[in-house]
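User: Please fill in residues for this 409-position structure.
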């Protein structure tokens, strides 16, 4: 039994629960889930709060620019229709930035989750200095901020996606082999929010996975596999992104397929990326063009698709082999994670007609639970815009999760 001193110490170190913050978050989530269709009485019923408390919370959210009244709800047997409530589309918004090997994309999302602005610059960044790349990021961020302000939005924060391992707390890119970055501190170089908040930093596959969950953390548990130049994955468990102890989860592209396999830019040998990545598929198909992303200068996945549709034997064989190797690795991931869905994103979304059947076959053969509950293999909802969109959504999701922080900023 813990001593009295231990109990007192635990009380001092455990943050106190703020009922007001909890109730505001519950009310705002109810509005978000049924935007335009729920009234104050519906908020009371959905949260279990009494009507006066629910009404007071809604008044506070309306006064803070997060909720608006939009007319009447449908009439019920109980009596008159109530005043319908909805999220404000002209309030706070988030900026998402995706820095990849041959493009930079920016995206602004309002509180409803709607994309209000997006812009992509296709330019091969390999060989460019870090300062040059980040200056471009800053210019695009300023353009997005100006567009948001002209549209009546309050850009409250930003998030940046990069193709590599990051230290989110220190805003450091630990390793981004395809950009040539290692232990790069970008804390003073990334664009801040309109109120001075530091930009969040995360792996591009993590943000792409968040785009699939949307504003309200929907979609259950799934593994999002993103292929562009490299191969990454985002693990979503019960609607929440799992980053691991150090934020390094999801580096599926660097799982070892063959210890004696070809060298990888990460410094190891035989990584999945060398067998099922973009460059590996091009090489196996006999295509000599260097790999380019969907948003990049040379979208080489289009060339792979054209050849596959034309029935080119080498391309079809390359896709079959890549799908089989990818499926074998994903079966191992399923044995560990037991999620209900595999989502193919990035170029895998485009190449799914040829990859997905091979993935399904390998999963059926090597996932231990396949005889009872085969996971669904789907394509991502969004294409190349997914990382920037997910990054922007991550900003507005923090407001929905904790509106009191916004109201008292």
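Assistant: Residues filled in for all 409 positions:
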């Amino acid at each position: 039994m813990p001593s009295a001193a231990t109990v007192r110490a635990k009380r001092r170190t455990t943050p106190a629960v703020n009922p007001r913050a909890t109730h505001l978050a519950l009310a705002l989530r109810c509005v978000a889930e049924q935007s335009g269709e729920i009234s104050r009485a519906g908020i009371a019923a959905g949260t279990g709060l009494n009507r006066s408390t629910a009404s007071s919370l809604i008044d506070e959210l309306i006064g803070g620019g997060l909720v608006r009244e939009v007319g009447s709800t449908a009439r019920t047997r109980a009596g008159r229709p109530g005043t319908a409530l909805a999220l404000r589309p002209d309030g706070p918004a988030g900026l998402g930035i995706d820095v990849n090997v041959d493009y930079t994309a920016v995206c602004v999302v309002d509180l409803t989750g709607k994309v209000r602005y997006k812009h992509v610059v296709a330019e091969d960044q390999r060989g460019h200095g870090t300062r040059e790349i980040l200056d471009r990021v800053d210019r695009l961020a300023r353009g997005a901020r100006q567009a948001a302000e002209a549209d009546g939005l309050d850009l409250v924060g930003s998030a940046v996606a990069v193709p590599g391992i990051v230290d989110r707390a220190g805003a450091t890119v630990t390793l981004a082999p395809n950009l040539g970055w290692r232990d790069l501190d970008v804390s003073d170089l990334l664009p801040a929010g309109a109120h001075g908040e530091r930009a969040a930093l995360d792996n591009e596959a993590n943000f792409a996975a968040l785009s699939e969950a949307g504003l309200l953390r929907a979609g259950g548990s799934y593994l999002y596999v993103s292929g562009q130049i490299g191969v990454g994955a985002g693990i979503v468990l019960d609607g929440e992104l799992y980053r691991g102890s150090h934020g390094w989860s999801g580096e599926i592209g660097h799982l070892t397929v063959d210890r004696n396999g070809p060298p990888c830019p990460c410094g190891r040998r035989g990584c999945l990326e060398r067998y099922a990545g973009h460059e590996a598929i091009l090489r196996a198909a006999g295509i000599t063009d260097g790999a380019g992303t969907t948003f990049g200068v040379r979208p080489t996945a289009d060339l792979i698709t054209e050849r596959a549709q034309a029935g080119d034997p080498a391309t079809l064989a390359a896709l079959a082999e890549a799908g089989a190797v990818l499926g074998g690795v994903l079966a191992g991931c399923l044995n560990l994670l037991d999620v209900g869905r595999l989502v193919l994103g990035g170029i895998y979304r485009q190449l799914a007609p040829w990859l997905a059947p091979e993935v399904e076959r390998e999963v059926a053969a090597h996932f231990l639970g396949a005889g009872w509950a085969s996971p669904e293999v789907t394509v991502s909802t969004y294409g190349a815009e997914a990382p920037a969109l997910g990054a922007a959504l991550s900003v507005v999701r923090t407001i929905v999760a904790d509106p009191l922080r916004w109201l008292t900023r």
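For context: The mean pLDDT is 87.
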